[in-house]
């Protein structure tokens, strides 16, 4: 497969480089790694899933075996196959680059961003549904298509909420680590099924849910919101961006994203990668892009039987989500989709930005404000999640068949 830079992006890059000596593209080595990553997967987890979920054991028994190993420890599961032991060994390995202090600082950034992290992340993600390599797996698996779009978002939100709890990702047996491994197995299961599907074009798209595409999700949880949320009053310092990059790098390790040869070390390097992705878009998702984009925001519409406060609350979140798309989807992409007006939500987001900025300044100069700010943001996020989720539980189901 190939990645071709659009003439418009190349022209802008050349002009900026001549005027400022700043290159908008990553280095040639990173570009090469990003291309190679389009066809790279997760061999250790793939071997486990092929042998168990997609093998003689079957999905239901494999899921139960994984739950048991997570509950009592892999060493206490005598029937665990070697592929499963290899997966747990890789999962439990602490990378030599890991800095626990930076991990906690990065998690704290997520706690400050709170609900806005998920909203801006999803608006940015919807902007990438121009790409068949991203849209085909999501459409086939059904996670973000049709009526299930909100439920899948709630599952992802549950993972976000767990991994940013203080100390959670480094605590053996934590819910954060459990969900991370289940996300990894689910991705691998979907990858295998999509790769064999008639709608998947390996020559054009490489591997479904590839290493490079997983890298983009890590950037969507670090430099993307650090840059975008500035417009909404969140003031994230360069040091905090480096910390949240480090945090996301370890999250990548947990979910099977091994991108050390291209992972950005700085804010600027992360923005270069995002620009390079935008420069090499194929715009080949066809009807699948609108299917996914036009499912998500309307899924926040209050049900017909909702009344009073519940209806007002649901409508508020519908408007906010539409406002995030207005602000964080590229206008020339957004206009291709039928979406609720984002103007009311945008007015709310911009209107509260000065108050957020004031708190962001105070947290740097007044002791205790930062901790309180994190607590308030997380309480609001958890309250929203619990209200929508109701009695449902997160699934991260690796046994589910493709929907067509």
Automatic annotation (TrEMBL):
Organism domain of life: Bacteria
Signal peptide: none
UniProt domain ER-bound oxygenase mpaB/mpaB'/Rubber oxygenase catalytic: residue ranges: 109-341
Pfam families, A to Z: MPAB_Lcp_cat
InterPro entries named in the record: Lcp-like, MPAB/Lcp_cat_dom
UniProt GO MF annotations: oxidoreductase activity
Annotated PANTHER family: ER-BOUND OXYGENASE MPAB_MPAB'_RUBBER OXYGENASE CATALYTIC DOMAIN-CONTAINING PROTEIN, SECRETED PROTEIN-RELATED
Protein name, per record: ER-bound oxygenase mpaB/mpaB'/Rubber oxygenase catalytic domain-containing protein
């Amino acid at each position: 497969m190939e990645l071709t830079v659009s003439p418009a992006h190349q022209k802008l890059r050349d002009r900026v480089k001549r005027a400022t000596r700043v290159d908008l593209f990553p280095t040639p080595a990173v570009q090469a790694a990003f291309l190679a990553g389009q066809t790279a997967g997760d061999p250790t987890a793939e071997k486990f899933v092929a042998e168990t979920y997609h093998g003689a054991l079957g999905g239901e028994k494999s899921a139960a075996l994984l739950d048991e190993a997570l509950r009592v420890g892999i060493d206490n599961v005598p029937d665990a196959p070697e592929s499963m032991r290899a997966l747990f060994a890789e999962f439990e390995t602490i990378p030599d680059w890991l800095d626990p202090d930076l991990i906690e600082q990065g998690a704290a950034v997520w706690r400050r961003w709170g609900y806005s992290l998920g909203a801006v992340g999803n608006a940015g993600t919807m902007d990438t549904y121009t790409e068949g390599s991203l849209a085909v797996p999501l459409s086939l698996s059904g996670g973000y298509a049709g009526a299930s779009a909100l439920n899948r978002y709630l599952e992802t939100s549950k993972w976000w909420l767990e991994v940013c709890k203080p100390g959670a990702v480094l605590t053996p047996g934590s819910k954060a680590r459990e969900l991370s491994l289940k996300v990894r197995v689910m991705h691998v299961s979907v990858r295998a099924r999509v790769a064999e599907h008639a709608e998947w074009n390996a020559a054009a798209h490489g591997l479904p849910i590839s290493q490079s595409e997983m890298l983009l999700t890590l950037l969507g949880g670090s430099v993307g919101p650090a840059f975008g949320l500035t417009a909404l009053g969140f003031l994230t310092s360069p040091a905090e961006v480096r910390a949240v990059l480090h945090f996301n790098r370890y999250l990548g390790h947990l979910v099977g994203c091994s991108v050390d040869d291209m992972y950005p070390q700085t804010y600027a390097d992360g923005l270069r990668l995002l620009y390079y992705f935008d420069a090499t878009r194929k715009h080949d998702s066809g009807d699948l892009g609108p299917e996914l984009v036009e499912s998500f925001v309307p899924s926040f519409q209050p049900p017909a039987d909702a009344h009073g406060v519940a209806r007002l609350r649901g409508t508020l979140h519908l408007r906010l989500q539409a406002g995030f798309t207005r602000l964080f989807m590229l206008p020339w992409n957004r206009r291709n989709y039928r979406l609720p007006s984002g103007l009311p939500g945008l007015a709310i987001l911009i209107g509260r930005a000065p108050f957020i900025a004031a708190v962001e300044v105070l947290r740097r100069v007044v002791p205790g404000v930062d901790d309180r700010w994190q607590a308030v943001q997380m309480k609001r996020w958890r309250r929203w999640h619990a209200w929508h989720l109701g009695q449902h539980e997160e699934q991260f189901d690796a046994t589910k068949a493709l929907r067509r």
